[in-house]
Amino acid sequence: MIIDIKKLTKTFIDGDRSLNVLKDINLEIEEGSIVTIKGPSGSGKSTLLSIIGTLDNADSGKILINGQNIKDELNIDKLRNKNIGFVFQFHNLISELTLEENVCLPKMIANDFINKNEINELFEYFNLKDRMNSYPNDLSGGEKQRVAVMRAIINNPSIIIADEPTGNLDQENALKMTSLFQKLNTEKNLTIVIATHDENVFNIGHKKYSLVDGLLKLN
Amino acid sequence: MKTYFLIAKRFLFPRNSFRSNTINFISFIGLFIGASSIVLSVSVLNGFQNILQTETKKLYGDYLIEDLNNLNSTIYFQDSDFDNINTSIFLEDEFLIVAQNKQHIIEFKSVSNKSLNEFYELNLKENLKFLSEDEIIIGKSLANRLNLEVGDNIQLISKDLKLNSFSLPEIYSFKIANIFTNRILKADDFLVFGVNKEIFKKNNVFIELNGNISEIKNQPFSLLSWKDRNRQLFEATEIEKKITFFTLLLIIVVASFNLCSSIMQISSQKIRDLAVFSSIGMKKNDIKKIFIIYSYLIGISALCGGIIFALLLILLQNNFSIIKLSSEFYLVDTLPMQIYPADIIWLLVGSILLIGIFASIPLRFINNLSPMKIINKQL
To answer: Which helix (H) or strand (E) holds A184?
Structure first.
């Protein structure tokens, strides 16, 4: 089990109101699987993903990644850098950096050696070889999102967390992105957790969940 | 560090962001002006301080020894080398000068002909020749005040009104051999040089001392250099320099405030990028590093630019005398400018500290950065 979540809860306090966004969530994700989660807006999908991705803390419960409780992890930033890649609804590329620099950013942060051949191959794999020195603003929406995926996988993480990855794409690019996730899952054995509204994306999940009223249900 | 430097550098020149570039430019200009103002002002104060010291030394560059057992007993000698004093004692006391039916209190400084030629720099009207016992050199202002010319005769009367055997005040006659010009401390209005020592004998104030400083050191004397004797004056100029330095440092403080608001603006514009950095594993302290480097890139380039600009102006002034002064009022005919490495180091250290403090203030919000909220809000 690459991700094992036990009795996870999260409550937000808004003035006098307290909102139980996640209620006793239990989730087991196998290595190399695709898990898709859908739910209405505000149902807590992004909160669940940010907790799995170590960007937020749960109020209670336990999250094990590769068998290790993330609460015990001293260097959570390093764990995130090495094991988890994020793809967001918007590309969130750094507009001042070239595509190559954007993609290499996780490696640069980790102070890892950057293998130029490896980067070239990656750009070739994503059909963006001739755009390496371009800036994000020079690309189309679909291309930007592909670069965001490249950045997410550059450190060979074991988990990809994608929050509405096709939410900002047209139908054609959304389909391409969906296929890309399937390809990455098959060819690189990546574990992918996707939160989405898009039925096409939702259907690629080996396990599909719905998050309603803070409760996670297997479809 | 290379990564943070790269990001900071790119943030400094954001693509297609006129507003950010303008904010950065304003911060740069503020620090640039602050640094160049400090260097220029301090260099002018240094210049005048040096003129003051040089001109003072020309007339008062001798050392004074006070007998601690008898404070009325004083000897003077001159030399800049404490360990090998070539004693050339001078005597000094106040007299009343009488000439052309006018009187004025003067300070008579009895020296040797050798020291007149080799030690003092009097800026004389006529060529210096050896003075005889009845010849003196007076200052230009005193000469004007008493309508005196070279060759005129004057009389000196002891201020203590020592009486001779006929119960009359002792009067000494002298001839004016030369006129010197040195307006420092209004010296040419009251200082008179001569070689006669007879007129002091009756005062019985001075003792003679021969030998070297090691002998003097073992005696109950206190040794005062020309700087010690004018300590208040030199300290005042030093304090003036420090006050000017710290006052002008306020420009750097204001510019640092500007830099602080610039960082606030840039960091709020880049908040989503910061959240992305966090999501891909950058520590919050490392995110802060980007903006600290960013501040220092602006700050140090502006400081260095300002300093280099000021140094160029100083170089131009010292070589081409662009700003002229009236030597009647300022002792020199061009604006004196001199800067020391220590002044630059103080400026850099002070400014770098200020920039660091002001740059870190707006970065406290990064501690509460919540990447997922920011990214999902699509700010």
So the answer is: helix A171-188
Domain ranges of chain A: 32-57+71-218
CB-CB neighbors (< 8 A) of A56 in chain B: 370, 372
CA distances from B167 to B162, B164, B170, B281 (A): 9, 5, 9, 103
Partners of B273 on chain A (C-beta within 8 Å) are 92, 94
Give the ranges where chain B is alpha helix by DSSP (H): 2-12, 18-60, 113-118, 140-145, 198-201, 213-218, 226-229, 231-269, 271-279, 284-320, 327-330, 341-360, 371-377
Given an 8 Å threshold on Cβ–Cβ distance, is A88 in contact with B15?
Answer: no
Cα separation, A192 vs A29, in Å, equals: 9
Q: Which fold has domain A32-57+71-218?
A: Rossmann fold (3.40.50)
**Is the pTM of the predicted complex or chain greater than 0.80?**
no
Q: What whole-number distance in Å separates Cα of residue B190 and Cα of residue B181?
A: 12
Contact residues of B toward A, CB < 8 A:
2-3, 6-7, 10-11, 13-16, 272-273, 275-283, 286, 370-372, 375-376, 378
Angstrom CA distances, B169 to B84, B154, B164, B175, B246, stand at 41, 15, 6, 20, 56
Token pair belonging to A148: 């965001």
Look at residue B289 and tell me whether its pLDDT is greater than 50: yes
Handedness of CA B106, B112, B114, B118 (dihedral sign): negative
Cross-chain residue pair B372–A49, CB shorter than 8 Å? yes
User: To 5 degrees, how large is the angle CA B256–CA B260–CA B261?
Assistant: 120
Whether complex ipTM tops 0.85? yes
Strand, coil or helix: what is A20? strand
> Residue A167: is it exposed, middle or buried by C-beta count within 10 angstroms (0-12/13-18/19+)?
middle
Cβ-defined contact of B279 to A53 (cutoff 8 Å): yes
Residue A208, pLDDT above cutoff 90: yes
pLDDT tens, position by position, B122-141: 888 888 778 999 999 999 99
Nearest CA in chain A to B273: A94
Nearest Cβ partner for A110 among B2, B6, B281? B281
